[in-house]
């Protein structure tokens, strides 16, 4: 079995100088960012796939779908933008599952047992680095949307509320994928486990109104976590009042994070003790 060597900053640390959790978080966040930015193909795919998805829906399906709702292509661009941003988060977070699984299965975690800081800082570092990557991808999606003609006249508070809710879901999906990478037996399995999560935006109000879906699908589409998050973000970007959708979206995010953190706290010590 090949054992990955810890970063030089970690090897230089010793129990005598007391490298703590913050030091470990800084080191492993930097390590994960270096690896991800060196893997330019994965980084580009995480950014380009959602952009291509937005272009396909807006320019191929947008006119016909918007016409059925009494709008035009620019209206549909504003409609799908939150869903595309959340889809970008899913593509980016799936990379986290793979790199966490690699660390868990190559002996890297076992090497950290001799280091003077919690091994869980590796997971936290991957999560922090994934947040940086996904926020970058979301920024690219928003910039291209503005370039395609998206405009909003909302104030800073509404815009920050919409972006903040999207950023919160980015944190949720990142934590979930990190846990999936921790429990998976291989990097391929980690990627496969999370693949189903990438389909959630499509079976929501993200690309078409729930009311236009078959009756047997409307129940799921209307009550899954993506729908209130997308609806609240969309309404905030249009200057409206999101109502209960905002709080429902926050509750979904809080529930996912609580469960993921609990699973990590229970399962992570067992995984590294093997």
From TrEMBL:
- ABC transmembrane type-2 domain location is 41-271
Q: Where are the transmembrane segments?
A: 43-61, 76-100, 121-147, 159-180, 192-210, 246-268
Membrane protein topology class:
Multi-pass membrane protein
Q: Which InterPro entries match?
A: ABC2_TM (IPR013525), ABC2_TM_bact-type (IPR047817), ABC_2_transport (IPR000412), Nod_factor_ABC_transporter (IPR051784)
Keywords linked to the UniProt accession:
Antibiotic resistance, Cell membrane, Membrane, Transmembrane, Transmembrane helix, Transport
Where found? Cell membrane; Membrane
Respond yes or no to whether keyword Repeat is given for this record. Answer: no
Question: What's one Pfam family the UniProt record gives for this protein?
Answer: ABC2_membrane
Q: Which family does it belong to?
A: Belongs to the ABC-2 integral membrane protein family.
UniProt name for this protein: Transport permease protein
């Amino acid at each position: 079995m090949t054992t990955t060597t810890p970063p030089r900053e970690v090897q230089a640390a010793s129990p005598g100088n007391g490298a703590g959790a913050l030091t470990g978080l800084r080191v492993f966040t930097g390590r994960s960012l270096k690896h991800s930015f060196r893997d330019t193909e994965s980084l580009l795919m995480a950014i380009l796939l959602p952009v291509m998805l937005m272009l396909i829906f807006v320019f191929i399906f947008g006119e016909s779908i918007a016409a059925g709702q009494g709008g035009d292509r620019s209206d549909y661009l504003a409609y799908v933008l939150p869903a595309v941003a959340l889809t970008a988060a899913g593509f980016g977070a799936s990379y986290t599952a793979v790199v966490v699984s690699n660390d868990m299965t190559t002996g890297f975690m076992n090497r950290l047992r001799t280091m003077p800081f919690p091994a869980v800082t590796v997971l936290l570092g991957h999560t922090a680095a994934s947040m940086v990557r996904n926020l970058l991808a979301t920024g690219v999606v928003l910039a291209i949307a503005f370039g395609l003609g998206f405009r909003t006249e909302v104030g800073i508070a509404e815009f920050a509320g919409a972006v903040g809710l999207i950023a919160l879901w980015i944190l949720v999906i990142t934590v979930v994928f990190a846990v999936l990478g921790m429990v998976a037996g291989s990097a391929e399995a980690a990627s496969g486990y999370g693949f189903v999560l990438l389909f959630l935006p499509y079976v929501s109000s993200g690309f078409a109104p729930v009311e236009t879906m078959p009756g047997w699908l409307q129940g799921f589409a209307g009550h899954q976590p993506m729908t209130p998050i997308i609806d609240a973000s969309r309404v905030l970007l249009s200057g409206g009042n999101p109502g209960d959708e905002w709080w429902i979206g926050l509750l979904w995010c809080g529930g996912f994070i609580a469960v993921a953190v609990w699973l990590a706290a229970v399962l992570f010590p067992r995984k590294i003790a093997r």
